[in-house]
Amino acid sequence: MSLPLHYQSAKSLAGLVRRRKIGALELLDHFLGRVERYNPRINAVIWESADAARKRARALDRATAKGARLGPLHGVPMTIKESYDVVGMPTTRGMPALKNNFPPRNALTVDRLNAAGVNLFGKTNVPLSLADWQSYNEIYGTTNNPWDVTRSPGGSSGGSAAALAAGLCGIEAGSDIGASIRNPAHYCGVYGLKPTFGIVPVRGQAMPGVLAPGDITVIGPMARSAEDLAIGLDVMAGPDDIDAAGWQLRLKRPTQTRLRDFRVAVMLDDPNAEVDQEVQTLLTRLADFLGRQKVKVSHIARPEIDTGEAQRVYVTLLRAATSGRQTPEQFQHNVEVARRLDPADESYFARMTRANVLAHKDWLAVNETRHRMRHAWAAFFREWDLLLCPAASSAAFPHDHQGERHERLITVNNKRVPTTDQLFWAGFSGAFYLPSVVAPAGLTPTGLPVGVQIVGPQFGDLACIRFAELLEREYQAFTPPPGYD
Description:
Elements (H helix, E strand, L loop, with lengths): L9 H9 L5 H19 L2 E4 L1 H17 L10 E5 L26 H8 L3 E6 L11 E2 L3 E2 L15 H8 L6 E5 L5 H7 L2 E4 L23 E6 L2 H11 L26 E4 L10 H16 L3 E3 L8 H15 L6 H13 L7 H9 L3 H24 L2 E5 L18 E4 L2 E4 L5 H7 L5 E8 L5 E7 L5 H14 L11
Parallel strand pairs: 2-3, 9-10, 9-11
Antiparallel strand pairs: 1-3, 4-5, 6-8, 7-8, 7-14, 11-15, 12-13, 14-15
Helix pairs in contact: 2-3, 5-6, 7-14, 9-11, 9-12, 9-13, 10-11
C-alpha cells in the first residue's frame, strides 16, 4: 500500500517531480498546507519563508520542463534545524540575545542541499543553546512529540524529528554532540544519522563568528527512510573548501547485501545508564528476529573498554567542548565551585563543573585516554561489523522544564533516575568518532516509538545505513503517528 504523499521518502518525492507526476510548486503547497493544519499542535516549524520557497519552486519547475540536469533531491520541500545559517531566516539557537541574528550567508551544508535541489521553506525548533533533550526556548516556545503532545520530541534536533514524523517536510538535517540527532529520531520514530566525526563540514552551524569545528559535534541528515540518509550524507559530506585542496572523502561501500551477511553485537543495558524494560524488550525482539535470519549475533561481544571510564571521558570531553559558552563571570564562578567539590564526587554536576574549567594539560590526558579507547573500538570492529544498542534509556518522557537539566529526573523501570545518566548512550560511540544510525524498532505497549542505535566503525557510515535499509525492508519501517493523516 502506497504511503500518502507527505509520508513518502525524499527520494520518492524527487522522483515524482522529476517524472512530472507533480510539480515542485504543487508539492510545496501540499506541505505548507500541512504545516498550517498540524503545526499548531506540535510547534515544530518555527519559521517559514513561504513566498521565497514558492519562487524557488517555480524555478525548479522551469528546470524540470527544460530537461535540465536535476539533483537527487530536486523539488523536495525541506525544513532544517534552526541552528543552521540560512539567508533570510534567523539563527538564534533559542537564545533571546540572538533573536535578530539574520546571517549574511548560508551554512556550507545549506548551499550543498540547495545545489541538490531541495526547496528549503522553514526552520525547526531547538532548546536553548542546543543543550537539552527537550526542545523549548523563550523565543519560539515548546515543541511537542507528535505521538503524545504531553511528551518531549527530544533535543536538540527535536523540531526536526517532530516535523518529519508529522509529515510536515520531506527531509531534515540536525546536529549531534550528545545524541541530538539520535535521541529525537528515537523519540519520534524516524531515521537519523550521526556521521563519522569530521566528514561533514559544520561551517555555518555554530555561534556567530565561530569558524573552528567543535570537538565531538557533527551534523547529519534526518529522514523517514534509511535510503534518504544515504542520499543526504552523499550531498552533505566531503571536505570544506580549504580542505578540498588536499583530501577527498571515499567512504567504504558495504559489501553486505543481506542481513545474514552482518556480524552483530547486541548491548541492551549498562550500569551507567539503566534501560527501561520496554525498550529492552523491543531490542530483544529485533535481536531474536536477526537470529532467525541467520545473522551472527552476540549478546556478550564488547570492545575492551571499561564503560564507566568511557562515560567519565565522554562527559569531560563534552563539557570541555561546550565550555566556551561561558561568560568570564560564569567561568570564574565555576572555578570557585570546582575548587569546593569533594574529590570523590563523581556526580554529573561535579564532572560537568570540572570540565567547564579544565586545564589544557588535563584535557590532553583525557584525550589520550579517548584515543586508546578509539583503538579498542577499531579492534572490536575487526571481529564485528556493527553494535546494536539503545539510543536512550526510555521512550519519550513528559515535558519537564523545571530547574537545571542535571537536576531533572525521568522514570526508568519504575524508578526516578537523573535524565543525564542516559547521556551514556550518546557518548559510548559518539566520543570516539564513530557513526551511528537510529532506525525505528517498534512501539511500546503505550504506543510510543523506540529506535535502535546501529553503531559502526569509524568511516563505516554506509554499512550502518545499509543495515538500516535492510531492517526497513524486512523488519520495521517508519510508522506515521495517529492523527496526522
